[in-house]
Write a structure and sequence with these properties.
By secondary structure, this protein is an all-alpha fold. The chain has helices spanning about 15-30, 55-70, 115-120, 140-160, 165-180, 215-230, 235-255, 255-265, 270-285, 285-300, 300-305, 315, 320-340, 360-365, 380-395, 400-405, 415-420, 425-430, 440-450, and strands spanning about 100, 125. The chain starts with 13 loop residues before the first helix and ends with a helix. It binds 2-acetamido-2-deoxy-beta-D-glucopyranose (NAG) (5 copies). One of its GO terms (molecular function) is lyase activity.
């Protein structure tokens, strides 16, 4: 059980003490959502300090449950994969472009080729939307996603406990050291082999692979939380080694050809490039650089990404438009949060494109039915975006609150609710919650009347 609430037991009546115990067991047993890896986000470390009321208990429990789930998979390292990058260096990150398939019909082999021979010898052809299952063999991308979620959720779980060291802060340090710092397992600070093409004309990374490390924004959030809470596990030594890694990787991001191509992309690749580079700049303390970059994004690229009606034409034309619209919005929100963090006076949430803002883009996606494009399995991607917009712009008409409540998704028990809960929604939802169990509701009502703010 996390201890985010400052409720004092002695003021409870015996009746509600019994109810409290029932509530605790009940909420532990049922109030956590299944793990979802969201495309990206940045959590201002100030938010992680709380205080959190009891209405956030379900969300906090989910954060802890997700930290535990990620912990069961970690630690992660690029050196753990069963294949090695063409450099022959096991410290090189590698992922394969998803839609490429071997065509061995013209290579003239007399016997079957080994998988390694095939990947070098046979030309690869592009089949849009058809994922070659081989792409999961080098699972660095999946490992990095899990690492990023592990760092974010362990850091939050650590922060809930308000101590200088807990098992969660120790996990963050272990995971960061294994992936970035330890001599046996560290990743070289480059993406020379990310989303690489195979075959005789391939064997090097492509600009789309730069997207693989976008979740550095989650890692930055986690590390900033440990710094803010002065975790005794995040030592000066670990910090300076990690900063040094980040500086080297910043140089790669600013100079390597695929990185420059990603920076120049006008769609979500350009948005997420900014997420990544701003996060790294924040980590190394270059807030001025991050501010310049964030302002450049909102003053330039951003303005070309949203039409006046809130549609994002470059994402709408993709094979999975509901996903890509929400994906890019998540990137925009992350950029807005990062810019607000480095420059509290910035007004980036108000920056418009033809009068449209991030809010307009979310309003548009709220009208899109994901079933029309067979995308009901990614419907969840819209919920943190809607919550973030409601939290930032307010919800005077109650439309965001209504959208979330009528979705059937237990958003108040989701991890993002810890940092996306808007005061407006909290009051709009007073009395409402995602549990239908009558006993739970009765106990919760008693709990609220007893503790007021808790
Ligand atoms: C050549 O190698 C490919 C890949 O292993 C295999 O599918 C194909 O059957 C081989 N051709 C011959 C003639 O053995
Ligand atoms: C990442 O986490 C997911 C969800 O728990 C799990 O299914 C997957 O196996 C994990 N992969 C790695 C490489 O940790
Ligand atoms: C966190 O701990 C500090 C020092 O132990 C204490 O002063 C503070 O009140 C605590 N904060 C919360 C929210 O419990
Ligand atoms: C959703 O379904 C599509 C098409 O079946 C698939 O390619 C994609 O990986 C799925 N996404 C998730 C998050 O399950
Ligand atoms: C937009 O700008 C106005 C005027 O400066 C300000 O009151 C409001 O809070 C801003 N809204 C957001 C979401 O930043």
């Amino acid at each position: 059980m996390v201890s985010g609430n400052a409720c004092s037991l002695p003021t409870m009546s015996a009746t509600f003490l019994a109810a409290f115990m029932t509530f605790s067991v009940f909420s532990l047993a049922t109030a956590t959502n299944p793990f979802i890896t969201y495309p990206n986000d940045f959590v201002d470390p100030q938010v992680a300090l709380g205080p959190f009321g009891s209405s956030l208990q379900g969300a906090q429990d989910t954060v802890v449950a997700w930290a535990e789930e990620m912990n069961s998979h970690g630690p992660w390292s690029v050196t753990f994969k069963p294949v090695v990058a063409p450099s022959g260096d096991k410290h090189d990150y590698m992922s394969w472009a998803p839609y490429q398939w071997p065509d061995c019909s013209k290579v003239g082999n007399k016997t079957a080729l080994s998988p390694a021979q095939m990947r070098k010898t046979c030309p690869y052809v592009f089949r849009d939307g058809e994922v070659n299952p081989d792409r999961n063999i080098p699972d660095d991308f999946q490992s990095f996603f899990n690492l990023s979620d592990a760092v974010l959720y362990n850091a939050l779980a650590f922060s809930f406990q308000n101590q200088s060291s807990t098992v969660y802060s120790q996990n963050v340090v272990k995971f960061v050291k294994t992936w970035f710092l330890d001599s046996d397992t560290k990743m070289n600070p480059n993406l020379n082999f990310a989303q690489m093409n195979l075959g005789p004309s391939g064997q090097s990374g492509t600009f789309t692979g730069v997207l693989d490390l976008r979740m550095l924004a989650k890692i930055a959030s986690g590390v900033l939380i440990l710094r803010k809470r002065a975790s005794s596990d995040w030592t000066k030594d670990v910090d300076s080694q990690f900063v040094s890694w980040c500086r080297q990787y910043i140089t790669w991001l600013q100079t390597a050809p695929p990185a420059k191509q990603a920076a120049a992309a006008t769609n979500n690749h350009g948005t997420f490039y900014v997420n990544q580079l701003m996060s790294l700049m924040v980590l190394v303390g270059d807030n001025a650089g991050a501010t310049t970059l964030g302002r450049k994004y909102f003053g330039g690229l951003f303005k070309t990404q949203i039409a006046a009606n809130g549609e994002q034409p470059m994402e709408a034309s993709r094979s999975r438009p509901f996903h890509y619209r929400n994906f890019n919005i998540a990137g925009m929100i992350t950029n807005a949060r990062l810019l607000k963090y480095v420059d509290p006076t910035s007004n980036d949430w108000n920056t418009t494109s033809n009068g449209a803002t991030i809010q307009t883009a979310v309003d548009f996606v709220m009208t899109v039915n994901p079933a029309k494009t067979q995308e009901t399995n990614v419907t969840v991607e819209i919920y943190p975006n809607v919550a973030a917009v409601a939290a930032t712009y307010g919800d005077p008409s109650g439309k965001y609150s209504k959208f979330l409540s009528s979705s059937g998704f237990p958003y108040m028990d989701d991890a993002f609710w810890v940092w996306d809960h808007p005061k407006t929604l909290a009051s709009a939802n007073a009395g409402a919650n995602t549990h239908s169990n009558a006993a739970f509701l009765a106990v919760k009502a008693g709990w609220q009347s007893l503790f007021g703010v808790c």
